[in-house]
Amino acid sequence: MAAQSSQMAPQAVPVGSRVVVLVSKGVPESAAPSYVTVPSVLGKSQGDALGDLQAAGLSARVFDDPSPSVARGRVAAQTPMAGQTAMSSAEVVLLVSSGPPAQGAQQVALPSVIGAAESDAVAKLRSAGLEPEVVHDYSAAVPSGVVVDQIPNPAVAPPPQKRSLAWLWVLLAVLLVAGVGIAAFLWLNRSAEVPSVVGLSQANAQSAITGAGFRVGSVTTTQTVSAAAVGKVVSQSPSGGEQARLRSAIDIVVSGGQALIEVPDVKGKTKKEAEDALKKVGLKWTTTSGNSNSVDKGKVMSQAPDAGQQVPAGTSIGLTISQGPKAAAVPNVVGETEADAKSALEDAGLAEKVVSNYNSSVPKGQVYSQTPSNGTLVAPGTSVSIHVSKGAPPAPETVTVPNVIGDTQSQATSTLQGLGFKVSVSQIASGTAGEVVGQAPQADAKEPKRSTVSIVVSVGGSQ
Question: Which of 11, 116, 161, 343 has its CA 20 to 30 A from that of 29?
Fold first, then answer.
């Protein structure tokens, strides 16, 4: 918004007058804001002025203050002024006349605070005995925190006071004395029930207020939880149903957008902890399950939207709860080669433990049994024992049995054990004591190594 400027003598205003100070919020946040031309609403009734501004795509901020030259209920000043440009949906500040100031009110010079910092401007106006009202709006040309404009503006001449109205005040005084003024006073101070406009669109609410004989006061915006409330009146003062003086101001608050909530990070939390965290900030949730090798069973393994995103209140956050590692079915590897069995187990996410044994009925290198059996559900990484055939066992080594008859027991035992036989000894009372008198198998027989040869040893005497 551009500041108004011209060179004039200092303007005098009554002590305690309201001065609206427009402070810059800096460059607009939008990269390419759209602009509209501000219409002229000076001298119009408040209702008509609000209608013209809304038709132009603008909103309004209304303040009351006495005016010696503008009729009660009509716009005495505006900023931005007519013909200037403003961002679409920007607020136009209106100063509406509350009637002439009190007779004999002390006058003070209206200071200019345009270009001053907000705090300095407020202090300067208050020190002059005036009441500052601060309004903030974007300005591409004025730094943030600096006053862009003010109403009244000492650089802009106030509307000329109509001298012809003096006789009217005299006449009204006469009428008041005659009693006519009393009736007029009572008429103007009639009260009526305030219409309820909560839930109506801003335009319909303003029409309802003016149609009931009241005027629209301040129109402010707020954020709401419900998207359906955007653009509608969410509160009013006085409330609907209350009694108020006709033509008094009804202030309304309109939803300018839906409140956004930052999604909390609930990954790694238990299902209940995650639900409590979402409920606390006003969000909902849905749950699904999945398997995870890294997230414990019963905890959140993923969420959507992700943590940190801004979403409207009531948004449902999708939670995936871990069911732990996915169970693996043991494949059937009996009859496979050792290499193929290992490959099948690895593809199933399982380990293998190889046990090799001789098996006359299964070819060498082929699996002939497994534990656990095929189809068993086990945890990933479980070891499966596979028994692999080493083929038929080798033929036993044979040794020629020596003749040990006539040898002593110790000689025979030493000879047989030296050839790899085992020795079994029995005794007989016949022949020379200590001499081997019999053996089995007989000498020169071919017997497996480590087989047993039985010898009969004499203990002397006769049986």
Answer: 116
How many Cα atoms sit within 13 Å of 415 on the Cβ side? 19
pTM of the complete model: 0.34
3-class secondary structure, 253: strand
> Poorest-confidence range of 85-94, 108-117, 119-128, 413-422?
85-94
Q: Which residues pair with 93 in a beta bridge?
A: 61, 79
**Pair of tokens at residue 119:** 């705090």
Query: What CATH architecture does domain 12-161 belong to?
Result: 2-Layer Sandwich (3.30)
Q: What are phi and psi of 125, to 5 degrees?
A: -70, -40
Question: Angle CA(325)–CA(328)–CA(332) in degrees, nearest 5?
Answer: 170
Q: What is the pLDDT of residues 221-271, one digit of tens each?
A: 888 777 778 889 999 999 999 999 998 999 999 987 777 889 999 999 999
Shortest CA distance to 161 belongs to which of 70, 82, 37, 51? 70
CATH 3.30.10.20 fits 398-458, yes or no: yes
Count Cα atoms within 13 angstroms, Cβ side, for 181. Answer: 11
**Long-range Cβ pairs for the range 171-174 (8 Å, 24+):** none
